[in-house]
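We were asked to recover a plausible sequence for a given structure. The inputs and outputs are reproduced exactly as logged, with field labels preserved.

PROBLEM: sequence recovery
POSITIONS: 202
GIVEN STRUCTURE:
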C-alpha cells in the first residue's frame, strides 16, 4: 500500500521533499504538537489522546501472534497454551503488545515474565524467523508474501480484539498542500482495506 501511495504522491509532486518515520506513539504525539510532524497514521484510541490531537478513524486492524513457519505451538487453540512460550515484543506504553499482555492477564494468562523486550521491528522479525520467539503484530504483515516470508500466524486461537487505525493531526491546524495530498491518499487507500478479519481459509 505504501508503495502505491508513494507513486501517486510523486506523480503530482516530483520535487516535493517528504520524510517518513516509524516510531512509538509516545514519540509521535510530541512531534505533532510541536509541529515537527504534519500527520501520523497510527493505532490509537481517541479518548486516550491529548485534546490537542484530532483522530480520524480509517479502518479496523487485526493483530495476531506470529512466529516462524513450523513453530511447535502454531496449532494452539487456547491462549493458555501460549503461557510458557517465549516472546519478543515492543512493550512501549500504549503499544499493541502491552495491550495484549493486559488482555491476557484479565483472562488469567500471564506472559509478561517471558518477554524479550525489543523496539526494533527489523530485529523482532529476524528473531521470529530464526528462533522460537513469538511476536505480535498486524495480520496483513504475515499475509503479504514478501514481508511475511518464513512467518506464520496462530490462526486457530481466538482473535484478539481489533484495533482502530487512523490519521492523527494537530486539532484546528490545516495541513500544507503537500501533506494534505499525502493524507488524502492514505485516507483513500487505508479506508478501502479490510484488515480486521482472517482470510476465509482460516
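RECOVERED SEQUENCE:
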Amino acid at each position: 500500500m505504501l508503495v502505491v501511495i508513494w507513486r501517486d504522491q510523486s506523480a503530482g509532486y516530483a520535487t516535493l521533499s517528504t520524510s517518513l518515520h516509524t516510531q512509538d506513539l509516545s514519540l509521535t504525539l510530541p512531534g505533532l504538537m510541536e509541529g515537527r510532524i504534519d500527520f501520523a497514521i497510527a493505532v490509537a484510541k481517541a479518548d486516550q489522546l491529548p485534546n490537542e490531537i484530532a483522530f480520524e478513524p480509517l479502518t479496523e486492524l487485526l493483530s495476531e501472534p506470529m512466529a516462524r513457519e513450523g513453530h511447535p505451538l502454531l496449532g494452539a487453540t487456547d491462549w493458555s497454551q501460549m503461557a510458557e512460550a517465549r516472546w519478543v515484543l515492543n512493550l512501549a506504553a500504549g503499544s499493541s503488545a502491552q495491550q495484549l499482555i493486559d488482555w491476557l492477564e484479565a483472562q488469567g494468562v500471564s506472559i509478561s515474565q517471558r518477554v524479550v523486550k525489543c523496539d526494533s521491528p527489523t530485529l523482532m522479525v529476524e528473531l521470529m524467523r530464526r528462533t522460537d520467539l513469538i511476536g505480535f503484530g498486524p495480520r496483513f504483515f504475515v499475509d503479504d508474501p514478501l514481508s511475511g516470508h518464513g512467518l506464520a500466524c496462530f490462526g486457530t486461537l481466538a482473535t484478539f480484539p481489533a484495533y482502530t487505525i487512523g490519521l492523527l493531526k494537530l486539532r484546528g491546524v490545516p495541513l500544507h498542500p503537500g501533506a494534505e495530498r499525502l493524507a488524502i491518499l492514505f485516507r483513500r487507500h487505508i479506508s478501502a482495506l479490510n484488515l480486521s478479519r482472517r482470510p476465509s481459509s482460516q
